[in-house]
Specification:
Layout lengths: L3 E2 L6 H14 L3 E6 L2 E9 L5 E5 L13 E2 L5 E9 L3 E8 L11 H5 L11 E4 L13 E7 L19 E7 L1 H4 L5 E7 L8 E4 L2 H4 L6 H10 L7 E5 L5 H6 L3 H16 L11 E6 L1 H12 L6 E5 L14 H6 L7 E7 L12 H14 L4 E6 L5 H16 L2
Parallel strand pairs: 12-13, 12-14, 14-15, 15-16, 16-17
Antiparallel strand pairs: 1-6, 2-3, 3-6, 4-7, 5-6, 7-9, 8-9, 10-11, 11-13
Helix pairs in contact: 5-11
């Protein structure tokens, strides 16, 4: 499913009417366009030279397609896209940026200058937890687009009546782990009693922050009886080492199995059953989750992957991760895979994330592996993953 681009030639009266409607509705104007799509008009006002729509699921390799058009003689700017109904996505505006490719070398500098939609009160702060290392240098706020059909945000919302677990942070020093740098690990202990199932997540600074508020999601799911009280373990992914660690690294998996899980078992009442031990993450975190379950099946028996980057080969699986799965036909892991219908950009790889996840689904199905596979309406976006995480947790940990 691709973005389709609408008409640019709206006249002044039409844009003025759309602006007034956007003021009343609080954001971009969506009009049903048939075939499961909405014609969504994004609007901006100001005396500028260039206004570009950025964010997910925009393809940042060609931002000419998402430049807004200025109505001659006014300060009104507009852009209409045909987007799928049910889409949830973060977006912002880049104003007078001097370069064409905002995903290039100036990304970190540019992203902090992005502006939210003044007409839209729904915003989303893209900021990792900075405990112990200072503020996130790439932190910024985006507006949130929710088209008809997205549904409510049930499991991410705080509920004062729900018992809350306790989150603590711990340091694992490089000298003790054999890894290249120190790692923070957050542990969520639920309000219930053990022995607990264990859920290990990568990109821990993301999964304990508001980006994907997993402790709150666990609180809500446990209180609703959807899953048993579960111990959450969130492993930090540090800067430039993230790619090396999460793209199929035996030393990193050894850290998880030989150092981290025994440390957890020595401090909290947890199960040692791999069938109740989950490993999960998004993007490369999903890749690492799958690799860990394949290479350490005696420790990890549940795989939760959100938009796993299975299209990226590595030294451990040069033909791609689906080929590695096919080479391990006896693995007994249960899988939850999801990918976005707009994750179609190949980015220089042979397949896109969506195509690679569909391929992995076929491989797992052919092997008779327990699997739930879903496709959400969105792109490579925490705005989507934070809402769908509860589905994966419920599927793998629920009765």
């Amino acid at each position: 499913m691709d973005i389709r681009y609408g008409e640019r030639g709206l006249d002044r009266a039409e844009v003025e009417r759309l602006w007034q409607r956007a003021e009343r509705g609080g954001g971009p104007v969506a009009v049903p366009a048939g075939d499961g799509c909405e014609a969504v008009t994004f609007l901006w006002r100001g005396d500028h030279d260039r206004v570009v729509l950025v964010g997910s699921p925009i393809d940042h390799t060609d931002l000419r397609r998402t430049e807004l058009t200025r109505v001659p003689g006014t300060d009104l700017w507009h852009l209409t896209l045909l987007l799928p109904s049910g889409l949830r996505a973060g977006y912002a505006y880049a104003i007078d940026e001097p370069h064409d490719d905002l995903s290039g070398g100036n990304w970190s500098e540019s992203v902090r200058r992005w502006r939210t939609d003044p007409l839209n009160r729904r915003t989303f702060r893209r900021e990792c937890d900075g405990t112990g290392i200072g503020p996130d240098p790439n932190a910024h706020t985006e507006s949130v687009l929710e088209l008809p059909g997205t549904g409510p945000s049930r499991w991410t919302a705080p509920d004062p009546a729900v018992p809350t677990g306790q989150v603590t942070m711990h340091w694992f020093r490089a000298a003790d782990t054999g890894l290249d740098c120190d790692h923070r690990v957050w542990v969520y202990e639920p309000a219930g009693t053990g022995p607990y199932p264990v859920a290990v997540f990568f990109d821990g600074d993301v999964y304990v922050a508001e980006l994907v508020p997993t402790p709150r999601i666990l609180d809500n799911l446990i209180a609703a009886g959807r899953i048993p009280p579960t111990l959450g373990v969130f492993v930090d992914s540090v800067g430039e080492t993230r790619t090396d660690e999460l793209r199929g690294n035996p030393a990193f998996v050894s850290f998880l199995t030989d150092r981290l899980l025994p440390w957890v078992a020595g401090r909290w009442p947890v199960t040692a059953d791999p069938a109740r031990t989950l490993v999960g993450g998004s993007s490369l975190g999903g890749t690492c989750a799958a690799y860990a379950a394949l290479t350490a099946p005696d420790r990890f028996g549940l795989v939760l992957s959100q938009s796993g980057a299975f299209q990226q080969p590595s030294a451990e699986f040069p033909d791609g991760l689906p080929a590695l799965v096919a080479a391990h036909p006896d693995t007994s892991a249960r899988w939850y895979l999801e990918a976005g219908l707009l994750e179609t950009d190949r980015g220089g790889f042979p397949t896109s994330i969506l195509e690679a996840n569909r391929h992995l689904r076929q491989v797992l199905t052919g092997l008779g592996r327990p699997l739930r596979y879903t496709e959400f309406v969105g792109g490579h976006d925490y705005v989507c993953w934070r809402e769908t995480l509860a589905d994966g947790l419920t599927d793998l940990l629920g009765d």
